[in-house]
Amino acid sequence: MKKNSITTLNQFIADQQNKFPYVQGSLSRLFGAIQLSAKMINRDVRKAGLIDILGNFGETNVQGEEQKKLDVISNDVFKKLMDMSGDCVCVVSEEDQDIHWCPDGANAKYILAIDPLDGSSNIDVNASIGSIFSIFKRLSPDKPVNEEDIFQKGDRQVAAGYVIYGSATMFVYTTGSGVNGFTLDDSIQEFCLSHPDIKTPENGNILSVNEGNLNEFPQGVIDYISWCKEDNKADKRPYSARYIGSLIADFHRNLLKGGIYMYPPTAKAPNGKLRLLYECNPMAFLVEQAGGKASNGQMRIMDIQPTEFHQRTPLIIGSSNMVDQVIKMMAGEAGGGNR
Ligand code: P6P
After folding, report:
1. Are 237 and 229 contacting, i.e. CB atoms less than 8 angstroms apart?
2. Cα–Cα dist 286/179, whole Å
3. What gap in Å lies between CA 262 and CA 227, rounded to an integer?
4. Quick one: pLDDT at residue 335?
5. Residue ranges around ligand 1 (CB below 6 Å)
6. Which residue's alpha carbon is nearest to atom 13 within ligand 1?
7. What is the CA(122)–ligand 1 centre distance, in A?
8. Is the CA virtual torsion 155, 159, 165, 170 positive or negative?
9. What digits encode the pLDDT tens for the residues 31-54?
10. pLDDT tops 80 at residue 87
11. Which of 41, 95, 283, 322 could, after both became Cys, cross-link 75 (CB 3.0–4.6 A)?
12. Lowest-confidence range among 44-53, 81-90, 161-170, 186-195?
């Protein structure tokens, strides 16, 4: 990236369109709608404390989680802009039980899965939160979209990304040709290329997991966490513990610095807490494009065959060698290997 040059997200996508024919007009238009959603949500997040949109909405979502006012606002923004784009057939959202069908989207090409505002527990305490999206292409332009189109494996995503509303607002995405990060310049309201071609270190020394659930984790995960705390200067152990309680914030830091995030099975969440379609698949696409790995402990996240809109999966994601180490120790557990 030339010093002092400015490449906006729109310019970057237009350039990608020239290089990669699959980034056709309608996909780049859909990105425009996602980008505008992000700017509107960013505006609301930044002033939430001043216009009484912090706190609980007063209902629970399909996950049985207390909805925050900003959860509902963000969800409505995404759906309204997808409706207006005309490039989206339907939206699967963490906040809705069923599919949202875009009224004028019957002939559109793309399906969107979203977590409109991840990390809700952090909204009222001003910690980083974010929006996560995953885009699939409908299987056939001639047949009405059905569950087969929705339940495509993560490997078939055409694009995925997130917007992190942190100390800066960043838009990070991939269409399968690497990962690029754009920082919102508030003065011109443009996302500008700031992190070209992100690659995540194959090793890291940051461990992100909620150790409050330690006693409920599989033995191999418990062994790995103990291993991370051993004194071994050669590979920079003990690792640092960093867990914000917001997947996007923990993932983004580990993506740039190296590290591992885990949400293993627990007694309360035997299939893990995070959702496959709109949290794990998009993050898995991003991390693999950046050179990292994403597994459920037994298999690659993007090989999992979805069967339900809101199905959960355990998630082990981050630096490739760290993910490999966890899987090896879990396998050791399966094979009764050394602790
Ligand atoms: P716990 C937020 O609700 C979320 O889905 C992720 O963003 C976050 O990493 C995780 O749940 C936190 O869950 O059980 O550790 O509070």
Report:
1. yes
2. 7
3. 15
4. 46
5. 118-121, 210, 245-247, 273-274
6. 245
7. 10
8. positive
9. 999 999 999 999 999 988 777 777
10. yes
11. 95
12. 44-53
Residues in the chain: 339
Ligand 1 centroid–CA 3 distance in Å is 38
CA distances to 7, 88, 159, 188, 192 from 10, rounded to whole Å, are 8, 19, 15, 13, 9
How far is it, in rounded angstroms, from Cα 207 to Cα 62?
Answer: 30
Task: From 51, 105, 57, select the one nearest 81 (Cα to Cα).
Answer: 105
Extract the tokens encoding 108. Answer: 């559109």
pLDDT at 337: 38
In the chain, the domains with their CATH numbers are: 9-195 (3.30.540.10), 206-330 (3.40.190.80)
Q: How many other CB atoms are there within 10 angstroms of residue 57's CB atom?
A: 16
Residue with tokens 């929705």: 150
| pTM for the full predicted model | 0.94
Q: Are 326 and 221 in contact (CB under 8 A)?
A: yes
Work out the pLDDT band at 124, boundaries 50, 70, 90.
confident
Residue 24 confidence (pLDDT): 57
Sort strands 88-93 and 110-118 into parallel, antiparallel or unpaired. Answer: parallel
- Asked whether the bond before 238 is cis by omega within 30 degrees of 0, the reply is yes
Sign of the CA dihedral 209, 130, 137, 9?
A: negative
Q: Which amino acid is located at 275 in the chain? A: R
Q: Which residue has the tokens 């909805």?
A: 67
Q: What is the atom index within ligand 1 of the atom nearest the CA of 250?
A: 9
Strands 206-208 and 260-263: parallel
| CA end-to-end distance (rounded Å), the chain | 47
Q: Which residues contact 101 (CB under 8 A, 6 or more apart)?
A: 89, 90
pLDDT at residue 339, as a whole number:
37
> Measured from the CA of 243, which atom of ligand 1 is nearest?
9
